[in-house]
Amino acid sequence: MIPTAVTLSAFENKMKLSPQSNTTITDEIVVTYCTIGFRSGLEARRLRDKYNLNVMNLDGIVSYTHACSVIQDPGAKDTSTSSLEENVYLIDPKTKKATKRVHVFGPVWNVASNAVEATYFSTFSMALRGLSVAFFAFVQSVKGFLVTCICGSGKKRDTI
Fold first, then answer.
1. Tell me, what's the pLDDT at 44?
2. Is residue 151 assigned to a domain?
3. Judging by beta carbons within 10 Å of its beta carbon (0-12, 13-18, 19+), is residue 131 exposed, middle or buried?
4. pLDDT per residue over 122-156, tens digit each?
5. Total of domains in the chain
6. Is the pTM of this model over 0.70?
7. Domain residue limits at 113
């Protein structure tokens, strides 16, 4: 996980348990992320619609692994130095300790920074995640189609 991030379930529990704090949260920017940004884009839209939040979607934790090494030392002349790469870290959600491991879908998608160790989802896990994403995208498409049909094609909808 990215340092200071919370899981989606923890965030939603907070929203459900403390409805009075939702007005504070709606004034802040909520940032969603996943591995490459597609699933988190769907979640960003869902959270925005459900809670009326200011939600942004990060391009994914893979992009983050490249960007954070530059952010660590913006004054560096050569951003390819190993000293910058040593500053890249994430948080292991199980141990809550710093780690340099990040999950990517497989070797083909391993474009993470050399500063981190990429680990891959199992084939079974990847298939389940793919089916889940496809189903969620299908439901969102049907929802958008129905809204367009019911509300009329002249109504402009905000998109992410």
1. 92
2. no
3. exposed
4. 778 778 877 887 888 888 888 878 877 887 655 45
5. 1
6. no
7. 8-121
